[in-house]
Design goal:
This protein has 156 residues and is an alpha+beta fold. Helices cover 26% and strands 28% of the residues.
Length: 156
């Protein structure tokens, strides 16, 4: 397989901490990745199972290639109406564990043809975090994008 798949070897020098990876967002650097969490919670496993997916042994990962792409589209120098700061990326583990809503999307990611998991969490704004489900020997739920939008208030 390609370079990306080989990078998930636990002994790889490409693996760094989540906090270190966030500090690299927006900078030009070699490919790096971080493991956010080694376990997928039981609720998410159950939702995935009802969609015909077995997430046993999967881990949540984040890569510099994905975060840099996201930063270009939704970051402080983008045209996004609610640009992301580095502090917003630090919320990802919290969003995964404390989500308000989660769904499995049958729509595949544009470049890799993987199904996705969409997490939503209201923290002042509505955060949307998307992971692609990578099957095969690496079994990972990999960062695809994150963005935020205003919370729609019900009409009075």
């Amino acid at each position: 397989m390609g370079k990306r798949n080989n990078a998930f070897n636990k002994e790889s020098e490409k693996r760094i901490s989540f906090e270190e990876l966030v500090q690299l967002i927006g900078q030009k650097c070699d490919y790096k990745f971080a493991i956010i969490d080694y376990e997928v919670d039981d609720e998410l496993k159950s939702i995935a199972k009802s969609a015909g997916l077995d997430l046993t042994g999967y881990k949540h990962v984040i890569e510099t290639s994905g975060t840099n792409h996201s930063q270009n589209r939704h970051g402080e120098r983008s045209n996004d109406r609610m640009p992301l700061s580095l502090e917003d990326y630090l919320l990802i583990p919290y969003i995964i564990k404390n989500r308000d809503k989660v769904e499995i999307s049958n729509n595949t990611s544009r470049s890799h043809h993987h199904k996705t998991i969409i997490y939503r969490k209201a923290i002042g704004e509505q955060y949307v975090y998307v992971e692609e489900i990578r099957i095969g020997r690496n079994k990972s739920l990999a960062f695809q994008t994150i963005y935020k939008r205003p919370i729609k208030k019900p009409p009075v």
